[in-house]
Design goal:
mainly beta, Elongation Factor Tu (Ef-tu), domain 3, SH3 type barrels, 2 domains
């Protein structure tokens, strides 16, 4: 999946200390396409949850890799994709050599993936969500202090993507913060260094802070 930056993702102006938004690549790994849920039918097909913004690219996939859950402890397995079709918001996959329910059953929980080098090219200034997860975020308006690590990207709760941060030194739920992933705040993305630099408005991190006990009592008394 991707989180696309607004158009004009490189700011060449000298004001505000804006930098180059173009993400830099990190070492090759996997791009996740789907998560196998369960067998479908009697001929070895499996139903899967889509993890890609480019499901139409399955037409171009002749082979994929099946990555096992950690509990299995085996290496990724290369398979040929024989056929697929969509079922509502999910996808049905048929792999060569998987011809029965008994063949398909052990693949529950596996992830369908391709090497990074084979993933779909992005428009200039766009970045894969999977590349953002694990990056540390630094607020230049606070002297470049690290404000947290990206654990997820929420693409559905708002009109813009929200970076889900785990803030250091705090316990849940106070440790979680949401930051709009918009050009106005963004200065630099360096995927290789696992670093995102932003300039955040004062107080933004406190907007989603949990209520204190006093605030909870006050809210309850108003009800």
């Amino acid at each position: 999946m991707i989180a696309a930056l607004p158009s004009g993702s490189t700011d060449d102006s000298s004001s505000g200390g804006s930098g180059n938004y173009e993400p830099t690549p990190r070492p090759p790994a996997w791009t996740l396409l789907a998560h196998l849920i369960r067998p479908h039918g009697r001929k070895g097909e499996l139903v899967a949850e889509l993890l890609t913004d480019f499901p139409e690219r399955f037409h171009q996939r002749k082979r994929v890799f099946l990555i096992p859950p950690e509990r299995v402890g085996t290496r990724p397995r290369e398979v040929r994709l024989e056929n697929f079709w969509f079922l509502r918001s999910r996808i049905i996959l048929r792999f060569q050599g998987i011809d029965s329910i008994n063949d398909a059953e052990p693949l529950r929980g596996y992830t369908v993936a391709i090497p990074h080098a084979e993933r779909a090219p992005l428009d200039y200034g766009a970045v894969y969500v999977g590349d953002l997860v694990g990056c540390s975020v630094f607020d230049l308006n606070q002297g470049g202090v690290e404000i947290g690590q990206i654990t997820d990207v929420d693409r559905w709760s708002s009109s813009s993507e929200l970076l889900v941060l785990r803030r250091p030194g705090l316990r849940m739920p106070a440790a979680e913060a949401l930051i709009p992933f918009v050009r106005d705040y963004l200065v630099l993305i360096d995927i290789a260094a696992r670093r995102v630099e932003m300039r955040l408005p004062q107080g933004l991190l406190d907007i989603n802070a949990p209520l204190t006990e006093g605030e909870k009592r006050e809210t309850g008394s108003r009800g």
